[in-house]
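Hi F.,

I've been meaning to write this up properly since the lab meeting, where we talked about keeping a consistent format for the predictions we share between groups. The idea is simple: the sequence comes first, exactly as it goes in, then the structure tokens exactly as they come out, then a line or two of notes. No screenshots and no reformatting. I'm using this chain as the first example so we have something concrete to point to.
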Amino acid sequence: MSSHFPHQLILFGPPGTSKSYRAKNVKAAALEAEGDCLVPVAFHPEFSYGEFVARLLPMTKGSKIEYTVHAGPFLRALAEAYFQISVAAEKQAAKVVLLIDEINRGNCAEIFGDVFHLLDRDDDGWSSYEIHVSDLVIGALEGLFAANRLQRQEYDKRVLQLLDSKKLRLPPNLYLLGTMNTSDESIFYMDSAFKRRWNFEFCPASFADVPDFQRDARVCENPPLAWQGFIDALNVWITNECTVPKLDDKLVGPWFVKAKALPTSPLSGSYPAELADLGALGAKVAEQYKGPGHSDEFDDALLSFAKARSAKVQARIYKFGKYTASGPRKFQAIASVPATISKRYFYVSRKSGIPIPTDTMRIEDFLDGLDTVPIDEWTHEIPRADIVGKLFLYLWDNVFDRDKRPLEDLLGVKRKDLRTFGQFADLVDSFIEKLLAYDAKQKS
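Output, unedited:
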């Protein structure tokens, strides 16, 4: 992980650009924050400073009402960061991430309150400034420490000094990571003083690194149309025709609608004889002194089998096998090693007992997986109901909420025939057809 990872980072961009997924599974993972070191929270319009930091809550016990301190996600993350510093000794303290989803759906000025002053960091990662807090907050912090079975004499010296003086500072191992959907207009204003204390990373409406099942999902059957082709055409049209100034906010990300799996048939259901022949060839690679030659035969047979299939199935076989035209062996998914005498590579079998890298398979495991590769042209689809109920509603209520003329022009209808969402939803097939025609014209 880079030592320059920002202590406060917000991922922002259009809807469907995997901001929440990227925040947890890429950014927080890069900091190795998991378990108690990853503290999630989602902001919303009713979220308050007390819920974020700490507050007193009444609890009924028998006939009595007692008040207990509820530590919010900020205090839990801070306590965990202090705890990790205290137990690290001479080692580097584990990193803690406070993950704030939809950060601009809450009133940040109210939610952060005086915590705002802690967001300035010195070069060593500690907050540049301190804030004074109440006995309630200190008590909540020490209660969290006690829950971790940490005695006061075991606190880190710097942490103990802060608690004794009833002050707080953010430590260098505490990171704040937020996500922000910029197209949502029901949000609170985030002032420049607050934003200046964060790094911002834009998440574009791009299909880079999107898995095949989502990118190639079927949108409609006749004629067949893939999700990426549809979304790319849609974003070109929005960019060219939408009249609002902040176009990045109006684009559609690849995950705006998640593809649903279709029933599929595996290779083993249609080609049992061919796969049995491949299995017989695969079993021979363990023969002493003949492994490289039998591996050559296996490569040739698998390539012939793949090339006899449709383009999509061939691509799936190549991808599953990590096919390469060059190299000691054609299918990199299968572990291979050089022979002792000839130095030519042969595929590793279970019979050999040779250890293999964790990102490879023995040839028997590869063949088991090959059996399950689907032969169907389409393995996933974007349901029509989701296109209408999610995507079309977004276009109607958000992208073109103030000016419906681009919709009218594309569909070739008069304003009186496009006054309600129901009228728009009825034109889904016409919209897709004319959107593709628009895109083809732009490319010509």
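Notes:
The chain has 18 helices and 15 strands.
The CA atoms of residues 348 and 355 lie 9 Å apart.

If this format works for you, I'll send the rest the same way.

G.
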